[in-house]
Amino acid sequence: QVHLVESGGGSVRAGGSLILSCAVSGPTFSGSGNWAMGWFRQAPGTEREFVAVIKWGEGSTSYADFVKGRFLISRDNAKNTVSLQMNSLKPEDTAVYYCAAGLWVPVLTASRWYNYWGQGTQVTVSS
């Protein structure tokens, strides 16, 4: 079992910044390079969409086009946390943001391959 707990959501004006954090724990999580840690988001009335992902071992990252250059995903191996630095926020970034973990994920951008999910944290960006 893997437990994910997000924090850091809130309300911000357009152009502002927020940092989301995801604490990873549980006996199943080994911190090996085979784990992928993703951030997804879901706005009301829409499907959950991919935001960013980092492969735990090698630290390689991938981003959705709509956040490239604005968001930065990182991980802290010692603390078992994954962070999402969000800059230049836009009203359309408003959503519930979810941290997800998956082992041997074949398609990093597809939510169905991730086995473990956090409870989500609300991000609201006002214009």
What does this 3D model show about the protein?
By secondary structure, the protein is an all-beta fold. The protein contains no helices and eleven strands. Strand 4 (35-42) and strand 5 form a beta hairpin. The chain is globular and about 40 Å long. The termini are far apart.
Walk me through the topology.
Blueprint: E1 3-7, E2 10-13, E3 18-25, E4 35-42, E5 49-55, E6 61-63, E7 71-76, E8 81-86, E9 95-103, E10 116-117, E11 121-126
Parallel strand pairs: 2-11
Antiparallel strand pairs: 1-3, 3-8, 4-5, 4-9, 5-6, 7-8, 9-10, 9-11
Report the mean per-residue pLDDT as an integer. 94
Helix content: under 10%
β-strand number = 11
Structural class, by secondary structure, is: mainly beta
How much β-strand is present in the residues?
over 45%
Features:
single chain; 127 residues; mainly beta; four-stranded antiparallel beta sheet; globular
Give the structure's gist in a few sentences.
With 127 residues, this protein is mainly β.
